[in-house]
## 1
Amino acid sequence: MKQAIISVTMIAFAMLFSEHFHSFSVGFTLAIIAVSCSYLIAYQAIHRPQYAMSFLVVAALTKLAITVTGVIWVFSAKIIHSPLTFLIAYALFSVVITYFVSRYQARRRDLSDQQQREIFHTGLYELK
């Protein structure tokens, strides 16, 4: 149900802002790049918990740096026509990408837990 609501919302916004397609697509692209890089760095904390705070701070700074650099570049190159459309697209797709990345990580964790349970039922243990 959540995915249907997200899909309908994205399509509705795309249709509403079709007049300012450049602004919408730049906001969408910048959100994907910033959030993806941030999560790639942040999820490294799972593998190295002793550096978790460092990874989270670096991830937040990376997202901020990519966003600020992208916004400065977009405004200096005069690519977008509507700052409001850009802002709405960036905010919407930041939330959407965050939702999908969280769902992906939860599904990966569930699959890992199921595989480990199967190993425990056989009496064998997984060595890491």
## 2
Amino acid sequence: MEASFLVAKLITLVLSLVVAYLAYHGYRRSGQKPMLYVSGGFVFIGVGAICEGLIYQVFGTTIASAALVQGIIVSSGMVLVLLSLWNH
């Protein structure tokens, strides 16, 4: 795996986890459930950002099946973010 690709994926993961942490902190301060959904959504998005390469490398699956798993995880995170906006 190329170093630049790995760095880009790690930056995406770190940024999404920072957003998730800030949203969770906002939830703890305000008690508003939509913030909890945003936090969970960004965790899924961040994990989805790195999981394709990991699944492909570790489990030796096809790139198509690894991409499918990534799509499902990232889509789940987007649904959580959408729910937070919809309910607010």
## 3
Amino acid sequence: MVAASATRNMLQSYGKRGIYVSLAVAVVSTAAFNAFYVWPRHNKYEEFFANYDSYTRMKEICSANKGYMHTCPKELAKLYEEKGKVVAEH
């Protein structure tokens, strides 16, 4: 009998190992991406919107010059009045 060759099934064994390694790397990289990028960003957004007051921010935006945001309620009221439209009865 002849001893088994060292190169027998070498391509298949390297192929299997490559598939298993690539699968493990894909799972680990996905978990690392979620743990170190997605979850911290998610938590920062949650914290920001828990303390966010949109009405206060709108007042800050509208108190700036017209060039910052021209659709503020005061600016829209001025535009309507210039066109002769009634905005609201006081």
